Structures are given as structure tokens and as C-alpha cells.
């Protein structure tokens, strides 16, 4: 997650569309969580949120809260369906991105005192980010699944 946070802070801003850009940590947490236990999802949301906040301007813990709320929604939806199909990533990412941004806007206005004009912010920040997330979620999901399967095949050593 530290590597993703570093890339998020240094490389990803080069790919901005208006003010929106992909959130790599959000995408990885979503992709990891749909095929993982609650505990793993919470771990990655917490680790990713802290790493993201340490390298950004948002107050420490803000991304953790937004990622944990997104994780709760993902796991709640997953509990309601019989089997997960990757096409369900689209509504999860759409809803999760909007929820993530609204919580971020709320946190920035309450904790930092920023006055946020919601409609232009959604138009220039959230909508371009949604575009990136819809395009990138499937490649990220495939990479995460490969990583998860590689970890599952690794023999466990220890006491």
C-alpha cells in the first residue's frame, strides 16, 4: 500500500482529467475486498487509508473512514448475493466512488473548514474519477486476483 500511495501522490496526478484522477488505493481495496474476508478487507482498508493520508493533504484517518465505509457497503452487498460475478464490480465502484467522495468532502469541510461547492466539485472531480474507476477496475481486479491466488499457493511456515 505504501508503493500505491507513493504512486498516487507522485505519478497519478499526471493523468488528471479536469480535477479527477484514479484512486489506486480505493481500486485495490475494492478489488481485494470482494474476494476476501472481513478481516483482510479491514486490514487493507486501514493500511491503504493511512498510507494515502500520510502522503496527501487530508487529515490523518479520513481515507481510513471512507475506505471502511466503502468496505462495509461491499461486504453487505456481497452477503446478500449467492455468488459474486465480476460484473458486480461496476455498481460497487460507482456507488463506492460517489460515497467515498461525499465522505471526503464532508470531512474536509468539517475538519479543515473548506467551503465546498458541491455541484461543480462533483462535475470536475467526482465524474472524471468515476470514468477512471470504471475503466480501471477490471484490470486492477485481474492483477489483485493473480496476487491473491499467488499468496494462497504459498506454503505457510511458522509455529
What would your notes on this structure say?
By secondary structure, the protein is mostly helical. The protein has a single domain, classed as Arp2/3 complex 21 kDa subunit ARPC3 (Orthogonal Bundle). Helix content is 72%, strand content 0%. The protein has six helices and no strands. It is globular and about 45 Å long.
Secondary structure elements and their pairing?
Layout: H1 2-10, H2 24-33, H3 38-54, H4 62-80, H5 89-112, H6 118-153
Q: Per the principal axes of the C-alpha atoms, what is the gross shape? A: globular
- Number of DSSP strands? 0
| Unreliable stretches | none
Mean pLDDT across every amino acid position: 85
Helix percent reads over 70%
Q: What key attributes describe this structure?
A:
159 residues; mainly alpha; Arp2/3 complex 21 kDa subunit ARPC3; 0% strand
Write a brief structural summary.
The protein is mainly α and about 160 residues long. About 70% of the residues lie in helices and about 0% in strands.
Amino acid at each position: 500500500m505504501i508503493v500505491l500511495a507513493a504512486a498516487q501522490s507522485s505519478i497519478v496526478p499526471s493523468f488528471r482529467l479536469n480535477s479527477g484522477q484514479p484512486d489506486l488505493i480505493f481500486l485495490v481495496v475494492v478489488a481485494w475486498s470482494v474476494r476476501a474476508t472481513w478481516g483482510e478487507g479491514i486490514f487493507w482498508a486501514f493500511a491503504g487509508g493511512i498510507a494515502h493520508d500520510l502522503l496527501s493533504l487530508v487529515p490523518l484517518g479520513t481515507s481510513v473512514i471512507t475506505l471502511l465505509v466503502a468496505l462495509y457497503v461491499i461486504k453487505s452487498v456481497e452477503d446478500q448475493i449467492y455468488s459474486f460475478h465480476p460484473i458486480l464490480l461496476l455498481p460497487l465502484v460507482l456507488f463506492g466512488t460517489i460515497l467515498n467522495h461525499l465522505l471526503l468532502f464532508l470531512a474536509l469541510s468539517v475538519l479543515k473548514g473548506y467551503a465546498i461547492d458541491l455541484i461543480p466539485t462533483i462535475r470536475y472531480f467526482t465524474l472524471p474519477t468515476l470514468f477512471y474507476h470504471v475503466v480501471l477496475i477490471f484490470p486492477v481486479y485481474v492483477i489483485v486476483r493473480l496476487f491473491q491466488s499467488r499468496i494462497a499457493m504459498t506454503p505457510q511456515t511458522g509455529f
